[in-house]
């Protein structure tokens, strides 16, 4: 699985948990919170959906690695590929 | 002690048969009940009253995803009430507004849903949602109103079983009189139809109503064949103000609250106590400073259970037996039992009587139970009278909580 594909998975999760947000023009390098109205509970939702839908665990100390789409791709792709 | 006069200046509601006071009243006068069969987890089909308001009218999709159904109902009713009050809400000091929401229970729905959710993951609690606690804290529906509206005054729920709708209004009246707030949103809400436990509990108790063919005939208070309640969702919120404030802003005053009382049976967890119910009504009349014969309408709490209806009629006979001009009706025959919203919603159904002098009937009576017979029970057809000036609204609940609220047509 490529980083682009993983980024797309994250976008699909964001579409579910923040249905009012526009996700088509997200800039991968920019923090998600600077582009959308996401709060800390929303990030917990992303963690929960990764767990439920993809059996991916993100330990609390790694939450900062979910800050942008690019960092999500970089951090999560090895986890997807290790499944 | 001088006490401010407290008036109602707005109402917003969602009921199984109407999403505005106008639609609801029209259906009450036309005899239109709206109960449907819904699929209940673990139980199959059960009759229930379901509201079909548009939640997206006042909430974002994210709010709907994170919040609760009770919160959504509360927000809809509160927003509609604010609009109906004509208050310049955007420019009003929101720290001076209080939110008082009556609930029968809260948290059953969300807890059941999460237990069901983790059952899909072998009961691994790491799949339990982090939204659980904010969804299930007892103040949730009132708190959701404040988040949605930006109100920064006090908010909380009043847990009062099925007397909660009246209790919400009484709390608001008291806070206005104490000067704690200048404007209050008050009433009751229920999301109970999403909890299988509530239906299963009533069923185990032998109190869940049935009808062979027609869900709209399940809720039939005072009918000889009645066999239990219909659980419904719904919400009704009012705006309350001190009379002087309402007049100063030129508000349209819908009614004045002149009397109220909450008391306790102190006798049984479930079975109502007609002596205490009668005492509650007597004390509310005393607070209002009126006689039983001054009351034009008594809206009964009767839920269509075999025992409960008889008990309430005994209490009404004790209080209003000598009053030839007091008419008695019931609203649950149309909408089922809206639990925490029941008292507030049923009161709203009667409010327009102050203008049109028509009393909506209780419907679904094919054969009146002689034990529930009263000379002035309004049955199946609306009753037009010369003038409706005073309404008494009964709302009772488990653990023996009784409430009676008395409204008078506003006269300066």
Descriptive report:
The complex is a heterodimer of chains A (83) and B (412). Chain A has 83 residues and is mainly α. Helix content of chain A is 57%, strand content 0%. Chain B is of the alpha/beta class and 412 residues long. In chain B, 33% of the residues lie in helices and 22% in strands. Chain B is built from 14 helices and 15 strands. In chain B, the strands form three sheets. In chain B, strands 5-4-6-8-1-9-15-14-10-11 form a ten-stranded mixed sheet, with helices on both faces. A three-stranded mixed sheet of chain B has the order 2-3-7. In chain B, strands 12-13 form a two-stranded antiparallel sheet. Chain B is globular and about 65 Å long. The two termini of chain B are 20 Å apart. The relative contact order of chain B is 0.18. Chain A binds chain B through residues 17-21, 37, 41, 44-45, 48, 51-52, and chain B through 60-62, 65-66, 121, 126-127, 129-131.
From the alpha-carbon coordinates, what is the Rg of chain A to the nearest angstrom? 12 Å
* Biggest pleated sheet of chain B: 10 strands, mixed
Q: For this entry, what is the oligomeric state of its chains?
A: heterodimer
Shape of chain A: globular
Strand content of chain A: under 5%
User: Which runs of chain A of at least 5 residues are low in confidence (pLDDT < 50)?
Assistant: none
**Chain pair forming the biggest interface:** A-B, 12 and 11 residues
Low-confidence stretches of chain B: none
- How far apart the termini of chain A lie comes to 11 Å
Structural class by SSE content of chain B: alpha/beta
* Helical percentage of chain A: 55-70%
User: How large is the share of residues in beta strands of chain B?
Assistant: 15-25%
Biggest β-sheet description of chain A? none
Q: Can you write the helix and strand succession of chain A as a string? A: HHHH
Helix content of chain B: 25-40%
